[in-house]
Amino acid sequence: MRVKINADRRVTIPTEALDSLGVKPGEYVEVVCLPDGIALRPERKHKQREIDLSMLGYLRDKIDPNVEPFDIRKFRKEFYGE
């Protein structure tokens, strides 16, 4: 997705992106600075919400069946060096 930065240096995050994170109006996201850009993460103060699998249905035909599933625990260990 491509978004424009306005004169006040503000960015509007598209609804589709926020919906994919499960963020609702009035909630917060964390902005994380990375070496090659930024990442948005939903702020989770209390309980972790479950992923709404119905939101992922449109990806079914776009995922290569030969690619190994993404392992978030492995990624976190490599990225954060745990």
Provide a concise account of the structure shown.
This protein is an alpha+beta fold. 20% of the residues lie in helices and 15% in strands.
Task: Quickly list its features.
82 residues; 2 strands; alpha+beta; 2 helices
Describe the protein's topology.
Blueprint: H1 15-21, E1 29-34, E2 37-42, H2 72-80
Antiparallel strand pairs: 1-2
What does the model show?
It contains two helices and two strands, in the order H-E-E-H. The protein has 82 residues and is of the alpha+beta class. It has one domain (15-80). A two-stranded antiparallel ribbon has the order 1-2. It is globular and about 45 Å long.
What is the general shape? globular
Q: Beta-sheet strand percentage?
A: 5-15%
**Main sheet specs:** 2 strands, antiparallel
Helix share bin: 10-25%
- Output the helix-strand order: HEEH
Distance between the termini: 31 Å
- Low-confidence parts lasting 5 or more residues at pLDDT below 50? none
Query: How many separate domains make up the residues?
Result: 1
- Overall pLDDT confidence: 81
Count up the helices.
2
Structural class given helices, strands, pairing? alpha+beta
Give me the count of strands.
2
Radius of gyration: 15 Å
